[in-house]
Amino acid sequence: MKERLSFREYWRNSWNKFSLIYLFVSLIVYTSLIFIIRYVANKSYVDSITIVAILMISINLVILFIRLGFGKGLSKTFGDAIKHHKINKSVKKELSNNKDNKSYDEIYVETKRKYELEESMKNKKKLYQPKMTNLVFLTYIALGVIMIISLIPSFIK
Fold it and tell me: Which of 2, 18, 32, 60 could form a disulfide with 137 if both were Cys (CB 3.0 to 4.6 A apart)?
């Protein structure tokens, strides 16, 4: 079970290098999309803002679903396949460079042990770093909803 963070801790964990880069880059992309849709597709500002708001909401919802664990089985399967491929590649490389007569299985076990040791070290480093929260993604979802709600009077005309 996850521990509940106080507001101050949640706010502090929400802003790191990745979240700030995502915030500003996506803000620039969304703003430029409004103008691109407005002038290239010859749409009105209301239409272009609506399209961008729906796009903003949907992209950030997908990111939240992924961060909450949906599709975790797929990512684990792909990760295991990539790990197995890397191990096999290094084993084949070592077999071709090997002067003594070690079998494939012995080299595979040694390489897998090294890889798992490196992976456990990475996981230990991750454990002590502060976890990023979902505040940026929730902010963009809220911004998209506010944009659509503020455009309701123009839809009624």
Answer: 60
Task: Identify whether 2 is part of a domain.
Answer: no
Residue 1 counted as domain residue: no
Q: b/e string for 72-84 if b means 16 or more Cβ within 10 A?
A: eeeeeeeeeeeee
Contacts of 113 (CB under 8 A, 6+ apart): none
Tally of domains within the chain: 1
* 25 belongs to a structural domain: yes
Neighbours of 134 (CB within 10 A): 16
Instruction: Express each pLDDT in 121-143 by its tens digit.
Output: 888 777 776 677 788 888 999 99
Residue 1 has pLDDT above 60, yes or no: no
| Mean model confidence pLDDT for the chain | 84
Angle between helices 135-150 and 7-14 (to 10 degrees): 90
- Predicted TM-score (pTM) of the model is 0.65
3-class secondary structure for 45-111? Answer: HHHHHHHHHHHHHHHHHHHHHHHHCCCHHHHHHHHHHHHHHHHHHHHHHHHHHCCCCCCHHHHHHHH
Query: Which residue segment(s) compose the domain that 116 sits in?
Result: 7-156
